[in-house]
Amino acid sequence: xxxxxxxxxxxxxxxxxxxxxxxxxxxxxxxxxxxxxxxxxxxxxxxxxxxxxxxxxxxxxxxxxxxxxxxxxxxxxxxxxxxxxxxxxxxxxxxxxxxxxxxxxxxxxxxxxxxxxxxxxxxxxxxxxxxxxxxxxxxxxxxxxxxxxxxxxxxxxxxxxxxxxxxxxxxxxxxxxxxxxxxxxxxxxxxxxxxxxxxxxxxxxxxxxxxxxxxxxxxxxxxxxxxxxxxxxxxxxxxxxxxxxxxxxxxxxxxxxxxxxxxxxxxxxxxxxxxxxxxxxxxxxxxxxxxxxxxx
Length: 296
Description:
Elements: H1 8-16, H2 20-33, H3 40-52, H4 56-59, H5 62-69, H6 117-129, H7 133-146, H8 152-164, H9 168-174, H10 180-193, H11 200-213, H12 223-240, H13 244-252, H14 255-263, H15 271-285, H16 291-295
Helix pairs in contact: 2-3, 2-6, 3-7, 6-7, 6-9, 7-10, 10-12, 11-12, 12-15, 14-15
């Protein structure tokens, strides 16, 4: 666990170590099957996988990168069942069709396991079943790492979390835990997920009221709460920017008074949250059909 946080070279060596990742996944699967998601060894395994998933897309070996980004030929653009990586990048215009990519392997080995749907479901299971804060945080953090980039892998993982594995209810529960770091990581994961336009309606329906409910009533009093508040505002920005319906949902959840209060703070220490709230307010005002509702 300590070695896995030793930097890029350490991560590279550990990812390349034959059988290491497979053994960690195997152990966690066994712990879940035996209804023991809270033991220390499981926590250690998940923390290692969390660290090994950091900057994974950037640090992948060239052979993997080529296979992930390689376009498959002779596939209908209307194919409704793309593989694990069948999803568009944020940089690709919405009107363009999804680039078809290789289907995920049924029996992944080594580094391939790190983004496989099997491990994604394991993380979601641990989030739901473990009561250890470090295990919860590491599981959320691994998913946050895997959804952090702008290429096909992060968006494929996001789609698996939201639509294929129904992970939003478990993540939503983590928004209401008392542990501030777990809550912060859950919000950061939702911020990543909310960048995917095809998932925004699902995310808004499932967690937008919860995000509003955990916004502070006044200016945040600590750095970690400030960072969490900023992430909430940027997540709400993503969800409402192109959707008047979601903006109205935010309004009906009584989010506007909170956002206005946070935006008016002048303290340099908490400017990150205030700036994010101001950006959100500016975006909300762009929905001209809601101006009368805002004024009321």
